[in-house]
Amino acid sequence: MNIRRIIFIFSLLAMFALSLSICGCSFIGVSNPALKIALVVPLSGELSQIGEEERNGALLAIKDANADGGAFGRKFELVQMDDKGDPVESAIIARKICANPSILAVVGGVDAGDTIMSAQIYAKNNVVMVSPSTTSPELTSKGYYSVFRVCASDLQEGISAAKFIANDLKLKRLAIIEDNSDYARDLIATFKGEFLKLGGVVLAEEKIYQGDKDFKAPLEKIKSINPEVIYFLGMYPEGAQIIKEAKEMGIKSVFFGTNGIKDTEFIKIAGIASEGTMATSVGFSFNKLIKGADFVKRYKEAFGRDPTDYAVFAYDATLSIIDAIKLSGKPDRTILANSMHNLKFDGILGSTSFDKEGNTNNNLVGVYIVKNGSWRIIN
What 3-state DSSP class applies to 39? Predict the structure, then answer.
């Protein structure tokens, strides 16, 4: 009987010790958890190529921050979420993030479609969101205190495109094809205002929709008026198919697009038809960036290919959050927006800060051309 009693007591002691061990591990985990930053981009679907570039850029920023010691004795962690480029899915994810206080801030939004709706949700909950590539002026025009972007807005891109077409290419007769998105509508307004002011004439405006596959009807109308330039406002899946069909129909107009087509996938889909296509992009020449060559080298080592502008913007978007967390003095997302507004950080794009609306003060817009199967900056 005594022996059984001793065995029972030792069993209880062993179970108690085990529970302490488990509780101890749990306590260590809770007291020293990772500093989580969410990435919300399309990792599947037609815009997944852009999403993957932005994910890679964000991952590299996290890697660099952790190699530098993290913050507050803790490491940073990127929580990857796939919004499929769908505004509804993006909004669902935004609500989940706002309900999860362990996530300090968000890097996200490839374009206006998957950003505008979710931005409102983040703003209402005072959760910082930094978009790498959403250029729509609407993103920062509503007074959202916690919403930011590291790329130039359409206000800059539309004006730059109009000036280049009218002044540099000296082409004035133009037709527009736009994908009826928020992104396209914002760009049209700024582009047309500047282009008409410079003496340009818009001969036709044709609407398509994302997901369309056949563009023969609008292209036949455009062919009949023979514009010098076709200005396309939309994304690369439709843009690539349009340029292929246009070339097959014998249309000789210069094809000029927005940053939605400046992607390697545009060239892959359009093939030889992409040669000579031009586009503005909220971008830059890596050779003109002090940290550009080093970033290209490290990115290629990590991911086996050259980076695009999207990767750089995502890197700097993530870096801005990391530096703002450090500036806050503690990992508290309720005060992070204040730190973002007071932030000045040195990223791949150079010295960057944000204005009172959340726009970057480091606006970069370039003009690119497809030459020998790759995008090259020309201005």
Answer: strand
Listed in sequence order, the residues at least 6 apart from 367 whose beta carbon sits closer than 8 Å to its beta carbon are: 160, 161, 164, 168, 278, 279, 280, 377, 378, 379
Pairing state between β 374-377 and 201-207: unpaired
Would you say 104 and 331 are in contact if contact means Cβ atoms under 8 Å apart? yes
Assign domain 35-151+287-362 to its CATH superfamily.
Response regulator (3.40.50.2300)
Reference 158, options 239, 238, 233; nearest CA is: 233
Partners of 350 in the beta sheet? 347
**Those residues with Cβ within 8 angstroms of residue 329's Cβ, 6 or more apart along the chain or in another chain:** none
The amino acid at residue 257 is G
Residue 131 to residue 5: CA distance in whole angstroms: 65
Rounded Cα–Cα distance for residues 281 and 277 (Å): 13
Superfamily of domain 155-281: Response regulator (3.40.50.2300)
Give the dihedral sign, CA 253/46/366/111.
positive
Tokens encoding 369 = 């051309």
What are the pLDDT digits (tens) for 96-121? 999 999 999 999 988 887 899 999 99
Q: List helix spans (H) across 68-210.
A: 87-98, 116-124, 154-163, 182-197
What is the 8-class DSSP label of residue 327? H
Three-state SS string across 260-322, please?
Answer: CCCCHHHHHHHHHHHCCCEEEECCCCHHHCCCHHHHHHHHHHHHCCCCCHHHHHHHHHHHHHH
pLDDT band at 14 (very low <50, low <70, confident <90, very high): very low
